[in-house]
Protein backbone atom coordinates (compact mmCIF):
# COMPACT_ATOMS: atom_id res chain seq x y z
CA UNK A 1 0.00 0.00 0.00
CA UNK A 2 1.27 3.54 -0.68
CA UNK A 3 2.07 5.44 2.51
CA UNK A 4 0.88 8.98 3.15
CA UNK A 5 1.85 9.52 6.81
CA UNK A 6 5.06 7.48 7.19
CA UNK A 7 8.29 6.98 5.28
CA UNK A 8 9.58 3.44 4.66
CA UNK A 9 13.26 3.29 3.71
CA UNK A 10 15.57 0.26 3.63
CA UNK A 11 19.36 0.62 3.46
CA UNK A 12 22.03 -1.95 4.35
CA UNK A 13 19.45 -4.38 5.77
CA UNK A 14 18.07 -1.73 8.16
CA UNK A 15 14.55 -0.38 7.73
CA UNK A 16 13.85 3.15 8.94
CA UNK A 17 10.18 3.97 9.51
CA UNK A 18 9.65 7.70 9.96
CA UNK A 19 6.41 9.13 11.30
CA UNK A 20 5.86 11.85 8.74
CA UNK A 21 3.40 14.52 9.82
CA UNK A 22 5.97 17.10 10.97
CA UNK A 23 3.50 19.99 10.75
CA UNK A 24 1.49 18.23 13.50
CA UNK A 25 4.51 16.98 15.46
CA UNK A 26 3.64 13.57 13.99
CA UNK A 27 0.37 13.38 15.91
CA UNK A 28 -1.16 9.95 15.44
CA UNK A 29 -4.19 9.33 13.23
CA UNK A 30 -6.08 6.25 12.10
CA UNK A 31 -4.36 6.49 8.73
CA UNK A 32 -0.95 6.45 10.40
CA UNK A 33 -2.00 3.48 12.51
CA UNK A 34 -3.09 1.52 9.43
CA UNK A 35 0.16 2.34 7.66
CA UNK A 36 2.29 1.35 10.65
CA UNK A 37 0.45 -1.98 10.97
CA UNK A 38 1.05 -2.62 7.27
CA UNK A 39 4.70 -1.54 7.45
CA UNK A 40 5.55 -3.94 10.28
CA UNK A 41 3.81 -6.80 8.50
CA UNK A 42 5.74 -5.96 5.33
CA UNK A 43 9.04 -5.80 7.24
CA UNK A 44 8.45 -9.16 8.92
CA UNK A 45 7.96 -10.79 5.52
CA UNK A 46 11.05 -9.18 3.96
CA UNK A 47 14.21 -11.26 4.48
CA UNK A 48 16.36 -8.30 3.41
CA UNK A 49 15.26 -6.40 6.53
CA UNK A 50 17.36 -7.44 9.52
CA UNK A 51 16.42 -4.62 11.93
CA UNK A 52 14.12 -1.60 12.23
CA UNK A 53 14.42 2.00 13.44
CA UNK A 54 11.30 4.05 14.22
CA UNK A 55 11.72 7.82 14.44
CA UNK A 56 9.85 11.04 13.73
CA UNK A 57 10.19 13.73 11.08
CA UNK A 58 10.84 17.31 12.10
CA UNK A 59 10.93 18.54 15.70
CA UNK A 60 9.25 15.65 17.48
CA UNK A 61 8.73 11.91 17.70
CA UNK A 62 4.95 11.77 18.19
CA UNK A 63 2.68 14.27 19.96
CA UNK A 64 0.08 11.62 20.80
CA UNK A 65 -3.33 11.21 19.20
CA UNK A 66 -4.41 13.96 16.83
CA UNK A 67 -7.44 15.15 18.78
CA UNK A 68 -8.04 17.88 16.22
CA UNK A 69 -9.10 15.10 13.83
CA UNK A 70 -12.15 14.54 16.02
CA UNK A 71 -13.79 11.21 16.73
CA UNK A 72 -12.22 9.71 13.62
CA UNK A 73 -8.69 9.92 15.10
CA UNK A 74 -8.31 6.17 15.54
CA UNK A 75 -10.62 4.96 12.81
CA UNK A 76 -9.24 2.14 10.72
CA UNK A 77 -10.10 0.39 7.51
CA UNK A 78 -11.42 -3.12 6.96
CA UNK A 79 -8.69 -4.89 4.97
CA UNK A 80 -8.97 -7.92 2.70
CA UNK A 81 -6.84 -9.97 5.10
CA UNK A 82 -9.00 -8.96 8.08
CA UNK A 83 -12.63 -8.87 6.87
CA UNK A 84 -13.78 -9.17 10.50
CA UNK A 85 -12.41 -5.71 11.38
CA UNK A 86 -15.14 -3.10 11.54
CA UNK A 87 -14.41 0.65 11.35
CA UNK A 88 -14.47 2.38 14.71
CA UNK A 89 -16.93 4.97 13.41
CA UNK A 90 -20.57 4.04 13.83
CA UNK A 91 -23.22 5.24 11.37
CA UNK A 92 -24.39 7.84 13.93
CA UNK A 93 -20.91 9.38 14.06
CA UNK A 94 -19.98 8.05 17.49
CA UNK A 95 -17.01 5.79 18.12
CA UNK A 96 -17.15 2.09 18.96
CA UNK A 97 -14.67 1.69 21.84
CA UNK A 98 -15.59 -1.95 22.45
CA UNK A 99 -12.94 -4.44 23.49
CA UNK A 100 -12.82 -5.72 19.90
CA UNK A 101 -12.29 -2.27 18.41
CA UNK A 102 -9.47 -1.40 20.80
CA UNK A 103 -7.85 -4.81 20.25
CA UNK A 104 -7.99 -4.51 16.46
CA UNK A 105 -6.85 -0.87 16.37
CA UNK A 106 -3.98 0.46 18.49
CA UNK A 107 -3.83 -2.86 20.35
CA UNK A 108 -3.11 -4.62 17.07
CA UNK A 109 -0.40 -2.10 16.21
CA UNK A 110 1.50 -2.51 19.48
CA UNK A 111 1.17 -6.29 19.26
CA UNK A 112 2.44 -6.20 15.68
CA UNK A 113 5.46 -4.20 16.87
CA UNK A 114 6.07 -6.42 19.92
CA UNK A 115 5.74 -9.63 17.90
CA UNK A 116 7.96 -8.39 15.06
CA UNK A 117 10.63 -10.96 14.22
CA UNK A 118 13.27 -8.25 13.75
CA UNK A 119 14.90 -6.08 16.48
CA UNK A 120 13.17 -2.70 16.74
CA UNK A 121 14.79 0.49 18.07
CA UNK A 122 12.88 3.67 18.85
CA UNK A 123 15.01 6.73 18.04
CA UNK A 124 13.10 9.39 19.97
CA UNK A 125 14.07 12.72 18.43
CA UNK A 126 11.84 15.07 20.42
CA UNK A 127 8.54 15.16 22.34
CA UNK A 128 6.77 11.81 22.73
CA UNK A 129 3.31 11.95 24.28
CA UNK A 130 0.52 9.42 24.86
CA UNK A 131 0.52 6.86 22.08
CA UNK A 132 3.95 8.22 21.15
CA UNK A 133 5.15 6.60 24.39
CA UNK A 134 2.96 3.47 24.49
CA UNK A 135 4.06 2.59 20.96
CA UNK A 136 7.71 2.72 22.08
CA UNK A 137 7.01 0.37 24.96
CA UNK A 138 6.38 -2.42 22.45
CA UNK A 139 9.84 -1.89 20.91
CA UNK A 140 13.03 -3.66 21.96
CA UNK A 141 15.33 -0.71 22.65
CA UNK A 142 14.59 2.99 23.16
CA UNK A 143 17.20 5.68 22.47
CA UNK A 144 16.56 9.39 22.97
CA UNK A 145 18.04 12.68 21.87
CA UNK A 146 18.90 15.22 24.55
CA UNK A 147 15.83 17.30 23.64
CA UNK A 148 13.38 14.38 23.93
CA UNK A 149 10.47 14.59 26.36
CA UNK A 150 8.10 11.85 27.51
CA UNK A 151 4.59 12.12 28.91
CA UNK A 152 1.44 10.08 29.46
CA UNK A 153 -1.29 12.72 29.93
CA UNK A 154 -4.28 10.44 29.34
CA UNK A 155 -5.70 10.80 32.87
CA UNK A 156 -6.11 14.53 32.16
CA UNK A 157 -8.53 13.51 29.41
CA UNK A 158 -10.44 11.10 31.64
CA UNK A 159 -8.88 7.96 30.14
CA UNK A 160 -5.73 5.91 30.68
CA UNK A 161 -2.76 4.92 28.51
CA UNK A 162 -4.29 2.19 26.37
CA UNK A 163 -2.90 -0.19 23.77
CA UNK A 164 -0.79 -1.92 26.44
CA UNK A 165 0.48 1.28 28.07
CA UNK A 166 -0.40 0.46 31.66
CA UNK A 167 0.81 -3.13 31.35
CA UNK A 168 4.09 -2.67 29.49
CA UNK A 169 5.14 0.40 31.48
CA UNK A 170 4.59 -1.47 34.75
CA UNK A 171 6.63 -4.44 33.55
CA UNK A 172 9.41 -2.12 32.41
CA UNK A 173 9.62 0.30 35.36
CA UNK A 174 7.78 -1.40 38.22
CA UNK A 175 4.46 -0.50 39.81
CA UNK A 176 5.45 2.61 41.77
CA UNK A 177 7.20 4.39 38.92
CA UNK A 178 4.52 3.46 36.40
CA UNK A 179 1.81 4.73 38.74
CA UNK A 180 3.67 8.00 39.29
CA UNK A 181 3.98 8.69 35.56
CA UNK A 182 0.42 7.62 34.74
CA UNK A 183 -1.37 9.17 37.76
CA UNK A 184 0.35 12.56 37.45
CA UNK A 185 0.67 12.78 33.68
CA UNK A 186 3.97 14.59 34.27
CA UNK A 187 6.35 15.18 31.37
CA UNK A 188 9.93 14.05 32.01
CA UNK A 189 13.10 14.91 30.12
CA UNK A 190 15.51 12.52 28.44
CA UNK A 191 17.93 12.43 31.38
CA UNK A 192 15.14 11.41 33.76
CA UNK A 193 13.88 8.83 31.26
CA UNK A 194 17.33 7.23 31.21
CA UNK A 195 17.62 7.38 35.00
CA UNK A 196 14.40 5.40 35.52
CA UNK A 197 15.08 2.95 32.67
CA UNK A 198 12.54 4.18 30.14
CA UNK A 199 15.30 4.71 27.58
CA UNK A 200 18.64 2.96 27.26
CA UNK A 201 20.80 5.88 26.18
CA UNK A 202 20.68 9.63 25.51
CA UNK A 203 22.76 11.23 22.75
CA UNK A 204 22.89 14.59 20.94
CA UNK A 205 20.10 14.97 18.38
CA UNK A 206 22.62 15.26 15.55
CA UNK A 207 23.98 11.81 16.43
CA UNK A 208 20.73 9.99 17.25
CA UNK A 209 20.09 8.15 13.99
CA UNK A 210 23.77 7.34 13.50
CA UNK A 211 23.86 5.93 17.04
CA UNK A 212 20.75 3.82 16.38
CA UNK A 213 22.10 2.61 13.05
CA UNK A 214 25.45 1.69 14.57
CA UNK A 215 23.70 -0.42 17.20
CA UNK A 216 21.57 -2.18 14.60
CA UNK A 217 24.48 -2.66 12.20
CA UNK A 218 26.24 -4.64 14.92
CA UNK A 219 23.09 -6.73 15.38
CA UNK A 220 22.54 -7.15 11.62
CA UNK A 221 25.95 -8.82 11.28
CA UNK A 222 24.98 -11.58 13.69
CA UNK A 223 23.03 -14.69 12.86
CA UNK A 224 19.51 -13.43 12.03
CA UNK A 225 17.88 -16.66 13.16
CA UNK A 226 19.78 -16.56 16.46
CA UNK A 227 18.81 -12.93 17.08
CA UNK A 228 15.18 -13.64 16.26
CA UNK A 229 14.98 -16.68 18.51
CA UNK A 230 16.86 -14.92 21.33
CA UNK A 231 14.27 -12.15 21.16
CA UNK A 232 11.55 -14.79 21.31
CA UNK A 233 13.11 -16.48 24.34
CA UNK A 234 13.49 -13.19 26.22
CA UNK A 235 9.98 -11.94 25.47
CA UNK A 236 8.22 -15.27 26.09
CA UNK A 237 10.08 -15.94 29.30
CA UNK A 238 10.22 -12.45 30.84
CA UNK A 239 6.91 -12.69 32.71
CA UNK A 240 7.12 -16.38 33.64
CA UNK A 241 8.59 -18.17 36.62
CA UNK A 242 12.31 -18.85 36.15
CA UNK A 243 11.79 -22.59 35.68
CA UNK A 244 9.30 -21.97 32.86
CA UNK A 245 11.61 -19.42 31.25
CA UNK A 246 14.47 -21.90 31.35
CA UNK A 247 12.28 -24.47 29.60
CA UNK A 248 11.68 -22.01 26.77
CA UNK A 249 15.40 -21.24 26.60
CA UNK A 250 16.28 -24.95 26.32
CA UNK A 251 13.76 -25.44 23.53
CA UNK A 252 15.08 -22.48 21.55
CA UNK A 253 18.73 -23.44 22.17
CA UNK A 254 18.07 -26.95 20.89
CA UNK A 255 16.38 -25.62 17.75
CA UNK A 256 19.27 -23.26 17.04
CA UNK A 257 21.89 -25.95 17.58
CA UNK A 258 20.34 -27.91 14.73
CA UNK A 259 20.30 -24.91 12.36
CA UNK A 260 22.45 -24.25 9.32
CA UNK A 261 23.43 -20.89 10.81
CA UNK A 262 24.88 -22.60 13.90
CA UNK A 263 26.96 -24.90 11.71
CA UNK A 264 28.15 -21.96 9.60
CA UNK A 265 28.89 -19.78 12.62
CA UNK A 266 31.04 -22.37 14.36
CA UNK A 267 32.78 -23.37 11.14
CA UNK A 268 33.60 -19.74 10.36
CA UNK A 269 34.94 -19.24 13.88
CA UNK A 270 37.32 -22.22 13.53
CA UNK A 271 38.37 -21.06 10.05
CA UNK A 272 38.92 -17.50 11.33
CA UNK A 273 36.63 -15.87 8.75
CA UNK A 274 33.41 -13.86 8.85
CA UNK A 275 30.35 -16.13 8.82
CA UNK A 276 27.85 -16.09 5.95
CA UNK A 277 24.48 -16.56 7.59
CA UNK A 278 21.35 -17.54 5.67
CA UNK A 279 18.79 -17.31 8.47
CA UNK A 280 18.15 -21.05 8.39
Structure description:
The radius of gyration is 20 Å and the shape is globular. It has 2 domains: 6-220, 2-enoyl-CoA Hydratase, Chain A, domain 1 (Alpha-Beta Complex); 224-270, Orthogonal Bundle (Lyase 2-enoyl-coa Hydratase, Chain  A, domain 2). The strands form 2 sheets. The protein has a 6-stranded mixed β-sheet with strand order 1-2-3-4-6-9, sandwiched between helices. α1 runs parallel beside α3 (106-114) and α9 runs antiparallel to α10 (242-257). The protein has 11 helices and 9 strands. Residues 76-103 have low confidence and may be disordered. By secondary structure, it is α/β, with parallel strands linked by helices. The two termini are 29 Å apart. It has helices at 30-45, 99-104, 106-114, 131-137, 165-173, 175-184, 190-196, 208-220, 224-237, 242-257, 260-270, and strands at residues 6-11, 14-19, 51-56, 120-124, 127-129, 141-145, 149-151, 187-189, 201-203. The longest helix is centred in the first third of the chain and has 16 residues, at 30-45.
Amino acid sequence: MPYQTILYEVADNILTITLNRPEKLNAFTGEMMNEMIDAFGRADADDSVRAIIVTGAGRGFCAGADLSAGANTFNYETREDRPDRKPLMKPDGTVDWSHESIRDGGGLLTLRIFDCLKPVIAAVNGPAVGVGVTMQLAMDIRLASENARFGLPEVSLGILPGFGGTQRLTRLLGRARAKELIFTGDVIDAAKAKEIGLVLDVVPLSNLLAHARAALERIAKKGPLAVRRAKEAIDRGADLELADGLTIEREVFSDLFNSADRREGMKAFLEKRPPVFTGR
